Helix-turn-helix domain-containing protein (Paracoccus litorisediminis), 236 residues
Amino acid sequence: MRNFVARKLNNGAVLRESDEARLDELVRNWRAMPARTDIISQGDDPEFVHAILDGIACRYKILPDGRRSIMDLLIPGDFCDMHIAILGRMDHSIGTLTPCRVAHISRPEVEDLLQEYPRIARGMWWSSLVDEAILREWLVNMGQRRSDRQMAHLLCELYLRFAAVGWPEAFSLGLTQEQLADTLGITVVHVQRVITALRQDGLIELRDRQITIPDIAQLMEFSEFDPDYLHLPPEH
């Protein structure tokens, strides 16, 4: 199984073989989780830090009226809750959107990484800063772009994030329309209309509930996508 955690951190720091070997050891402790399952819930005081090895998960909150707001999508290589080693309690929930493999890393092991593996520590700091940059871009996306460009912008972001960890298959997004609606802050009906419009314009393809991107450059131009906020190396 490819170590997508190491691949992601290599985008923010040049890891040595010893660093990658240590990360290989840490992600061996994983378990499979079905879709629509909480990895960790708001208010929990968890024992482990989690990393996504396969599948897609999300950060979310449930509003008083029962609606769900998805605030971040987590893909292979992403740490879910690295901050809990410092903050202690979760202020939001993290759940799987698709079937996932999730690694469990203890707090002492995370502290050891930060103290004894400076290149890994740099990569983890880079990862946290990129998470903040993505959140800022999402705020702009939801507040200022019309819904078809919101969707296109999100797909461009995910395409590049998957590419940055060397995802071995052609990019596809196996999320439901309900999950996309919770992510973009629009209704399912609106999602259906947006997907139909993007398909008709040839910007995306939809087969067996899988969205694929035939021409990423065209989609980036349509959504006015600027990848600078992802802070990826030039080759990406």
Q: What stands out?
A: The domain at 4-127 is CATH 2.60.120.10 (Jelly Rolls). Residues 57 and 96 are 4 Å apart (CA to CA).
